# Entry
Amino acid sequence: MKTVTAGPKYASIALLVEARILDGEWGDGRMPSVRGVAAQYKVSVVTASRALQVLRDKGLIQTVERSGCFRVPPADVERWALCLRLTPGPWRSLTETVVRGGFEALARRDPMQFDTDAFDLRPGLTPADAERAATAALERGTPGVVLLPNRVSESETQVERTFLAGCRAAGLPVCLIERNLEGADGLPCDLVTMDDFGSGVAATRHLLGLGRRRVGIVVASATSSHNSRLAGYLYALHGQIPAPANFVLRAQYSTDHKASYQALCDGVLRHKLDAVVCFSDYTAVGLIVELMHRGKSVPQDVAVVGFDNLPVGEFLPGGLTTFSYPGEAMAEQAVRLLRDRRVHPTRAAVQVVIPSELLVRGSTAGRS
# Structure
């Protein structure tokens, strides 16, 4: 290994690391952490941090929250826009990390870049503004957009409709991921989702197979993902002899999350449910905490299933039964559809469904 030359240590280390980058090292994109650089060059963490800041200032590396440092892809790689309209709240950053992780994994395997700051979707966006922004993106070399729609409000959905219209006018392809626009009738553009219907069936059948007979489901919005999971839940209940009752609980979006979890728990206890399928892991964990606060045991009294395999589920003894989030597969299919859309701009919109795996843990199967 080369030694640190004369001059400020951080500047010398920055030059050494830069040379390794230009030589093609770290081809998968992921670079050593600050502590990793400090250990390699036998310097303090502060010095290593300053060296990496020099490389960030030069545009050679970027830092992704909770993920680490990555090489910035060369200028000739594909550069896609990534717009994640995630629900605000205490678990938003965890959810974003999981969603972005799929795109980061794809970019390490097939070098490309995803720009999360390409568009500013705010209330008041006009069709003309949207078209200008889309045209500017094309001129910057961005050939398409991946959009995760919101599920919070009609006003935010209207912003997304306006944005899609502007992209269509400019000829900028858009692919939705996870869900369609809230309340949409038909596909406004291509869509990649996990198998929400199949997951709803699998979760419900898992609980029925454990002998649960009063199984409920929690949904929160008129999005395609929630509607499909609800449909899978109802399908799994159909034809059971004796027929179990169905209970649909609708969570209200609120900035007061504790009150939302309390209201859900009220519904679970009022209907005497012995199992619940929740639309997200953070809702499942919030419900479990509230159930335990009221003296109920999970899974002995109430078994609970979530979705997306967020790290928050690890906080529970034995873990949370949930569904894996097929992030990399969804990202890969979204890019494939965008590339194909550029070649065939007038073809009909399609939906690609990605399977997801049920991960059975302590919230339904007892402590491991």
Notes: The longest strand covers residues 78-84. The domain at 9-71 is CATH 1.10.10.10 (Arc Repressor Mutant, subunit A).
